[in-house]
């Protein structure tokens, strides 16, 4: 084995090995007859290179899939890609310098635009595939599911047809959130809320038939005032009629003082009146003169432009006392809540803007102005009319388009909906059967999402998406849903726009032409269909569906509550009548070390490539799983480095273990005699078997945090910093005999098992060590570590008492070392006696006496009282006799000399088994005596074939001089001939 740890080189080497030997395919073959593990990959958008969040997500998936494979499962590991939708259209628009939707049809052509989108999505898919594979992730990279394939589209069509057949798909008017830039409806899950500062205005509307009396309304969206149809009050609130100069204003009683105070206006309360009594008051529309349509509407509808009592029965919390005046401007055509209120009172919803957010000629004087953008112009207009009584800047959350980041507006249009509200209570009860990790993600988050579920608007007025499979007769309006290519009955190049748009069907009722509804689907519906659309279903029939549906396990981030989890649940419920997944692991977001979102503008983005370049992908893998379920990953380099160090320790331990190869010893054929085990051997065998059991449990419960902790602690603390340290004296090259073989055998078995246990997390590093340390000893072993079986713990080795005793022994040693340090006595100097007091220490001292003697470097240790320097520790008190006698001094000198020779050997690149001829000399008699006394031990430790101790210095080539407490010793040696 290479003694230096070079992760990047190792990782690339292993990736090549896997591909040369087709290891992934062998693993698939191995488990073909195994039990099924139905996993489905939540598809990332093919919008560009992967980021840390996607890398993290795939690493967690890979960790679980690898564990399941080791357990013999036939794992469904097809990766998926979300390749349609606005995210891609927006990128292509940027590339083609398209500014408006119109240009797509008129300048570029839909066919060319769609081809660009397809190329963009495919190019990115292959880049992302490679990036995921570089992380050591094993999925069926050659065969990803792509949402743009006809067979996939058919899966989504099938679901819509099922929904239609069950009455869960309908066309209806509704207030939809609209992106003016993208000219399309957006669903709730396509909105991003951002804190923005907006101008809010207080406007007075004149009451009709009451001289100088006004209702004061408040709004943060002045552009919606032209569409105003009513003013809402809460029937349960009291309102005050205020005398302000020579006018009378109506505002909520509890808000009057604060509001008028903010305006700096004096007022008197004339009377108080309940909101209920104000219902029906007529007011003059603020733009009655400017908008002809409003006058017409008023004539047609008695309730138009009146005060409306909106209680919680109509719409909960529509009128509150949180902000404003307690009177709410209501425009059913320009807001989803207003739409519901309007519907309740039978007031029409007028939308005065077109799909680009521009006011139409219906808006009279305002035709041509832009919604939201031109807010200031409406304010200006109202000011000129003297209607604004107060202005204030408010900071509030406002929804933005998830793709182009522009603030959204609202329109009322006819759209296609999936009626999930009717299924709400069934979904809530089905959700209770789903196993969520963490459980609050399901009990609280998803539960409350479902409680507030609204019908899902699925039609989008765009191009690059799954076309709506709905054909409508141009004459009799007969509607037909197409569930597959076969049902279409005509040949078409592909199912995308614009080709599908040319498919004209014949009406079954009146034989006229049926044309397709030109919309495409909300891209979230694409991924919602993944559990079956990724299969050859419906084309291969129900058998394949029964095999792989529903999904056993999915794993995604917390943003998917409103995203993928929602679309999976909704679409499956309306088509299959049951959820499409049985268990979910939910993780958080990746942020920077301070918890800030990584973004270009903040300049705090770290890419997976940067991490790999610096510490390798395995360090990232070990690091990124350290959080608890549902938690965010606050990326920080220091912790990645911690993981890197742990891997370095694993590597060094393996290098140390590989010395057994020098001894021409084969641990695979060596039979271990349990009777020959030292207590520390029994301890580490107990530990590895305990670890085995704990890890199995952690993997079964998707407890990544624990998996990471157990793996790191075991290799760093138990093996490297303790067991290997205890082995040093048993494994010197010069040491012969059975005990050394026992030590190597135990270390080998421990590492071999550890490597398999760690392989789901560290697939590349575990493979490399396995190939170097384990596989050479037997060709009966699997060709790759990933073709192994998940080991079962051998409970006959597990001894919790022994583990506790070792824990105590280790603490005793550590405490004695602290006492030494405080007394300034070097560890190399042996001390006479260590006493330990405490209830549980007796057994520990008895079992691990040798360990304590050696590691504390004392001649004797006893449980009980003693003299010397004392220090308390968790299990009692340690008392170390720190007196330095002449004997101790002599031994210390001999040990310093041995250490100096070892380091000189190392400095001059002596291999461990090279012998030397050695001369030690000193003019000091005490020193020579001490060296003579330890002659035999020196010879053994430093590998000397010949030793001389003189007054005169030796003539050998390699020399050093030691100064021990003022006494000088010369060292000289050569390679033995
Ligand atoms: Zn947009
Ligand atoms: Zn017809």
Secondary structure: elements and pairs:
Elements (H helix, E strand, L loop, with lengths): L6 H14 L2 H8 L5 E2 L14 H19 L3 E2 L4 E2 L4 H10 L5 H8 L1 H25 L10 E2 L3 H16 L3 E11 L4 E3 L4 E16 L6 E7 L10 E4 L4 E7 L2 E6 H11 L4 E7 H4 L13 H9 L5 E4 L18 E3 L5 H10 L29 H10 L3 E14 L7 E10 L5 H8 L3 E3 L1 H13 L4 E2 L1 E2 L9 E4 L5 E3 L3 H4 L16 E2 L6 E4 L3 E2 L1 H6 L1 H4 L8 H7 L2 E7 L6 H12 L5 E7 L2 E2 L16 H8 L1 H8 L8 E2 L2 H21 L21 H22 L3 H24 L10 H21 L4 H12 L25 H24 L7 E7 L3 H7 L1 H8 L1 E6 L5 E5 L2 E6 L4 H22 L8 E6 L3 H9 L1 H8 L1 E7 L7 E7 L2 E9 L2
Parallel strand pairs: 1-2, 3-4, 8-11, 9-13, 17-26, 25-26, 27-28, 29-30, 33-34
Antiparallel strand pairs: 5-6, 5-16, 7-8, 7-15, 9-14, 10-11, 10-12, 16-18, 19-24, 20-21, 20-23, 22-23, 29-32, 31-32, 33-36, 35-36
The structure holds zinc ion (2 copies).
